[in-house]
Amino acid sequence: MGKLFFFILFSFCSLASAQTGFKLKISGEITQTLELSLSDLSKMPRKNATMKDKEGKVHSYTGVSVLDILAAAKVPSGKELHGENMSKYLLVKCADGYQVLFSLAELDPSIADKTVIVADTVDGKPLPDGKGPLRIIAEGEKKPARSSYQVTELIIGAVKK
């Protein structure tokens, strides 16, 4: 019994430590790489988005708008989003190697009405093991293929001529 207790306690502490040390990295074609802890993200403005699961049940996610995160990294938006900045994109990397792509233009409210958040809760609870600590939620997409699990990095790039 004692060994089982210590194993469970060790496993919980390891998970808590891994979550505490987690940093979302924002890198690529920006002036300075940015790393945000879960605590940093929790202090940013919160936004909600909904998405249906494979069974058709609607879930409510809460997190930080991708736009707010990109603004903290001084990524061009609004009036700055013209000319060569129109060929810039956001590449989302996940812990399992999965990657998805968004154009900066489709994320900008001056061009499109699209809600994309980096979520840390679903239905008022932390994301389940294997799905978090962060997940991209692209609200309104017909398939959830870009609503990726275990997000680790946001990379800004530009199409080269």
From TrEMBL:
UniProt KW Signal keyword: yes
Pfam families xrefs: Oxidored_molyb
SUPFAM superfamilies hit by this protein: Oxidoreductase molybdopterin-binding domain
Gene3D superfamilies: Oxidoreductase, molybdopterin-binding domain
Record domain Oxidoreductase molybdopterin-binding: where: 20-139
InterPro entries registered for this protein in UniProt: OxRdtase_Mopterin-bd_dom, OxRdtase_Mopterin-bd_sf
Cleaved signal peptide residues: 1-18
Keyword terms: Signal
Name this protein carries in UniProt: Molybdopterin-binding protein
